[in-house]
Amino acid sequence: xxxxxxxxxxxxxxxxxxxxxxxxxxxxxxxxxxxxxxxxxxxxxxxxxxxxxxxxxxxxxxxxxxxxxxxxxxxxxxxxxxxxxxxxxxxxxxxxxxxxxxxxxxxxxxxxxxxxxxxxxxxxxxxxxxxxxxxxxxxxxxxxxxxxxxxxxxxxxxxxxxxxxxxxxxxxxxxxxxxxxxxxxxxxxxxxxxxxxxxxxxxxxxxxxxxxxxxxxxxxxxxxxxxxxxxxxxxxxxxxxxxxxxxxxxxxxxxxxxxxxxxxxxxxxxxxxxxxxxxxxxxxxxxxxxxxxxxxxxxxxxxxxxxxxxxxxxxxxxxx
Length: 320
Hints:
Layout: H1 4-7, H2 19-22, E1 30-36, H3 42-53, E2 59-60, E3 68-76, H4 83-87, E4 91-99, E5 102-103, E6 112-113, H5 124-130, E7 136-140, E8 149-150, E9 153-154, H6 155-160, E10 170-183, E11 186-193, H7 199-209, E12 214-224, E13 227-228, E14 233-234, E15 244-245, H8 246-249, E16 255-257, H9 260-267, E17 280-284, E18 287-294, E19 300-305
Parallel strand pairs: 1-14, 3-12, 16-17
Antiparallel strand pairs: 1-3, 1-15, 2-3, 4-11, 4-12, 5-6, 7-10, 8-9, 10-11, 12-13, 17-18, 18-19
């Protein structure tokens, strides 16, 4: 594992530029799965990879806090147009929780505090007894120190300014909770959950159920959708040769094969016969063409199209 300083060098002053000026040689449409080390922010990881692949405009599908490590999916070029579909996947984590320690931020960034009176550390049996009540769909209050916008500002900005933030509960889903280890006041949990679940909030809620303060002191994302550690590349090893083409990046999403004539019709804003119940990735001849969605009249229309006709990466078709 690299240290935070060795892993990341933050670059600043990235203004908005045209696609050509971002990369005069080639636009890399696609993305890559990276292993984020503990220490740098998600934005710093993106900045580092941008320098190594040689162009700007990358994005990521799901933030990891600086103190967290694990799987991150980065997108670039036309891959960024699929970001919202790549963000909604389920996640898997290994979380380390410290009992008897409280935190205003919910994690080790603090400020940290301990109760005035000593508290009993919950034994394994007590922890295992409360885990089932957190499974399934439930309402969760996000931490005040989070990136959620409240009245137009990030909640962590308000919290750091000393403003009391009223965080509204949100529906989340937790599919699995397994107690892996108990070592004095520290325990490790394996968690499978839906998108939008805050593990910091889960740690706090577990503590409340056990009537003891609890703080998340370590977090590792072991999977993001189908992507796991086995798919990921260390950020210091990423170059253009490791970059995934668009077709590999979105291959796991629901897909619909189209004919050339259907592609041309959709590119011109027309609808085509057929029925789909959700968004699909449009493919033709082994090449991704766009995103399809169901139309109100029961046909299919383009929600997002990647060219003015039929996309062929080798022909450098003009994109939107």
